[in-house]
Request: fold
Amino acid sequence: MVTVQSNLTLDQAFSSEQSLAQNLSFGNLKKKLFRELREIYTEIDSKDEKIKSKALEKHDVVSRKVLSSIGTLSHFNLMETFTERYQLLAYDLSEKMYAEYDCKNETERMLVEIIVNSYIRTLDNSRRLNNEFEGREITQNRNVYIANLSKQLDRANRQYLQALLTLKQLKTPSLELKINATNAFLSNNQQVNIKQNEIIKPI
Reply:
């Protein structure tokens, strides 16, 4: 459901594409959800048992929508990708990595959740794969299952490493050099040899 700001007429909301984009948005729905949840908490404290009972029934549905809408701050969507076995681990690892890498924007937080997701999938696929090697009878279906598990394990491990590398690069300040030279070839961790006619100037 998409909502229009209550203080606007329909003519104002539809006056231009820009106005439509600003005033007809899911952002308004998010604000409505927060107001609804606030009202539910008020009703839960009611002395009227009927009002309190109805509020408790609505609480789970609305709170889940709110938690989902704030995404990387709640880790709700990440936790939903796992069974109960790994949900608290996903939350704990995400919070610790936010602190470790001082994540301050949505891009960094999304990368952390990708890292945690792929890490736990690596653990889970490893556990499943090890369980298949416990001396049970080898069948064609089991061979196919084991092959698929191996592929999933490899994919999760690669995603983990790539996301972690990307996050590290984002958090590492870049070093810029201005080199006046006819030919200059630089690579990572390479020593720079300065000749008589080459000048390195700070920016």
In short: Confidence is low (pLDDT under 50) at residues 1-6. The two ends are 52 Å apart (CA to CA). Residues 140-171 form the longest helix (32 residues).
